[in-house]
Design a protein that fits this description.
InterPro entries: CheY-like_superfamily, NreC/VraR/RcsB-like_REC, Sig_transdc_resp-reg_C-effctor, Sig_transdc_resp-reg_receiver, Tscrpt_reg_LuxR_C, WalR-like. The protein is of the alpha/beta class and 205 residues long. Helices cover 50% and strands 14% of the residues. It contains 10 helices and 6 strands; from the N terminus they run βαβαβαβαβαβααααα. It starts with a strand and ends with a helix.
């Protein structure tokens, strides 16, 4: 069972999402919140697997709430669900550690699938979001990656830890860390989040 927390400032939307999500037998809504502060508190008490997070909310917006949640509860997945298409919002969401960015006009079946994918350590982005990633990762000339590097990049994009990747590839964690450092430097990237986005833009996943 995948436990979901709904965070949105609009009550009717919270209720609509609840009914939509609970139609699927694999999903369960464990609670809801109307602002970012309540969302952080609920993550501590309800321990959801996935949070559906609005952006524009009073007291603490969704971007800041996501940043706090990812820092305090690293295993909880957060998907931004918003009307905001502005590139700056997309960039801020990715930098905050969000595991996905979807628009509220998404089909119900697609949202359910997205929740399941994120719970399975995948990242989900609306196709229109990818067009705005040039502000987050500048367009670069193609860089040749080795087969091993591409394989490792894919695992990172799936949300796997260095320890998990080391076990899969039969390498030490230290070796995995060194390879990741080299990939980041080669591609002029700052962290694993940027590397995951890079994997999407290069169609490695």
């Amino acid at each position: 069972m995948i436990n979901v927390l709904i965070v949105d400032s609009t009550r009717i939307l919270r209720e609509s999402l609840l009914h939509l999500i609970e139609k699927d037998s694999e999903l369960r809504v464990v609670g809801s919140a109307e602002n970012g502060l309540q969302a952080v508190e609920s993550c501590g008490t309800l321990a959801p697997d996935v949070v559906l997070m609005d952006v524009a909310m009073p007291e603490c917006d969704g971007i800041e709430a996501t940043r706090i949640i990812k820092r305090k509860f690293s295993t909880i997945k957060v998907v931004i669900l918003t009307h905001q298409t502005d590139k700056e919002y997309v960039a801020s969401a990715l930098k905050s550690g969000a595991d996905g960015y979807l628009f509220k006009d998404i089909k119900g079946s697609e949202l359910v699938l997205a929740v399941k994918c994120v719970a399975g350590n995948m990242r989900v982005y609306h196709h229109d979001v990818l067009e705005g990633l040039d502000i987050y990762i500048e367009n670069r000339n193609p860089i040749n990656q080795t087969r091993r590097e591409i394989e490792l990049i894919r695992y990172i994009a799936q949300g796997k830890s260095n320890k998990e990747i080391a076990g899969i590839l039969n390498l030490s964690e230290g070796r995995i860390k060194n390879i990741i450092t080299g990939i980041l430097k080669k591609n002029d990237l700052q962290d694993r989040t940027q590397l995951a986005v890079y994997a999407i833009t290069k169609r490695y996943i």
